[in-house]
Design a protein that fits this description.
The chain is an alpha/beta fold and 256 residues long. Helix content is 48%, strand content 14%.
């Protein structure tokens, strides 16, 4: 059974976790399917935005409980230490592939978003959630730590004390609380419809400027001041006077 579906229309890709009968819980097949879906989109020149969502009652309930048995019986070094994608293993790649895509990714969250599901959502640029979405940094419940790039993504979004509290306790919180902490961008009673509307709005902007903006924000979040300033100038120089920028000017002047 397919774990993920991808549909691209008018420059917007809709990537859907399709293991709804299991609340889209992550098993090795789901992890592999999500990575493959992201990498297939990475190479598309026509792509302008991505909407990431889950079918059924949940966005993603986290790691499939059945996978714990296999993990416990495996050599832990062999299971998580090999770097399969540059500086990442598969479980880290499945979250960071969305941050690494050259276009904005919007996650539409509902139902349950626990553990690995939350870390995948954090890989998106923007998270739109139904107010009653249940969320948790769940790994401590199972005697583990977040290891799906959570410690790359979480410190950029929440204060250290909140990060520590959520990691140490594995407490469940709703999307309203998540928004106050910075884990959710906005609330919506229909997060998928709102995500698709926002993706369509982004898709209507200059595609080269949107890609440049995502690259630049990535540099700004990690680099030294001088490198950020140089990156600003380089991206701008590569945009000024080019076809996409001239079209943006014409569209604004023509009130299109």
């Amino acid at each position: 059974m397919a774990r993920v579906s991808t549909e691209v229309k008018e420059g917007v890709a809709r990537v859907t976790l399709t293991r709804g009968d299991k609340m889209n819980a992550l098993d090795p097949e789901m992890v592999a399917a999500l990575i493959a879906a992201g990498e297939a989109l990475e190479a598309r020149d026509d792509l302008r935005a991505v909407v990431l969502s889950g079918e059924g009652r949940a966005f993603c309930a986290g790691l499939d409980v059945a996978s714990f048995g296999a993990l416990a019986g495996a050599d832990p070094e062999a299971a998580v230490m090999p770097r399969t994608h540059g500086d990442m293993n598969d479980y880290q790649r499945v979250a960071l592939i969305w941050r690494d895509l050259p276009v904005p990714v919007i996650a539409a969250l509902h139902g349950t978003c626990f553990g690995g599901g939350l870390q995948i959502a954090l890989g998106a640029d923007i998270r739109i959630a139904a107010p009653d979405t249940r969320m948790a940094v769940m790994e401590m419940k199972w005697g583990l730590v977040p290891d799906m790039a959570g410690m790359v993504l979480l410190p950029r979004l929440v204060r250290s004390d909140i990060l520590r509290r959520l990691t140490y306790t594995a407490e469940i919180f709703d999307a309203r609380q998540a928004k106050t902490w910075g884990l959710v961008t906005e609330l919506s009673d229909d997060p998928l419809a709102r995500a698709e509307a926002l993706a369509a709005e982004i898709a209507g902007r200059s595609p080269s400027a949107i890609r440049a903006a995502k690259r630049l924000i990535g540099v700004a979040e990690a680099a030294e001041r001088s490198d950020v300033l140089m990156a600003e100038s380089r991206e701008q120089a590569d945009l000024i006077g080019k076809a996409d920028q001239m079209e943006a000017i014409a569209a604004n002047m023509g009130k299109r």
